[in-house]
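B., you asked whether I could sanity-check this one before it goes into the benchmark set. Here's the sequence:
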Amino acid sequence: MQPIIISKLILAAVSACSFGSVKQQAALPDTGKVQSQLAPANKSWKFEKKPVWADEFNGSGLPDSTKWSYDLGGHGWGNNELQNYTNSTHNVNRANGVLTITARKESSGSREYSSARIATKHKGDFLYGRFEIRAKIPGGRGTWPAIWMLPTDNAYGGWPKSGEIDIMEHVGYDPANIHITVHTEAYNGAKGTQKGQAKKIEEAFTKFHTYRVDWTPDAVRGYIDNKPVFEFINDGKGYASWPFNKRFHLLLNVAVGGNWGGVKGVDETVFPAAMEVDYVRVYKMVEK
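And here's what the prediction gave me:
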């Protein structure tokens, strides 16, 4: 969900991978220069049975403020997105054990659409673990829902140096094609080299499905309904290909249009368009 370069759209679409962002790059800190060049062994990592962090979205109104903050504004988010993100229950609301993020066709700030983007930054930051989210996503041309992760500290510099993990991304002009992707300095959407896989989930808009990533020292592995879809192995070549040894946080949002989501325009008749989230659960990796 980070900003992208439009010239890469066709290449990335053919490869069935999602897009990433292009931000001004920060200088590489010294920590990146001493990273091991040895790929870690696959130790068949396990995860604790009880979540170390979770939100079942009980209660009503805005999400739990001890777990979630808001990214606000309508500046395009580096992707030429069309929505203004708010912290209003009009766009993000809990009811009946479900969180609903709704994009609407309406005047909001300086934009003609409103929506919400929430994050666990500094309230839920994690290094490795199992991340499981059960959700039902919106369809319709111009919608761009995402469940994803960004680095909390940008230890290796700005995007894509410090990485991105997309647990679930969908663009409405490509119905039901669900993407799981990682972006790094070596492999990212700006270059059309991002690493990812997509899978058709025909009932993604009408039923809840479980989107999951298992992140361990040796790999990032993605699953839909507990079936493996994607695997990205740590090659041991340093931060440029594997920045995933620092803490990350979770984000949930529904964007409108943008360099990827809006490549075939926006169908105004599909709004309001909502992503419903039954739960978010994070399981701690068992150290070996």
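One thing to flag: Residues 9-14 form the longest helix (6 residues). Otherwise nothing jumped out at me.
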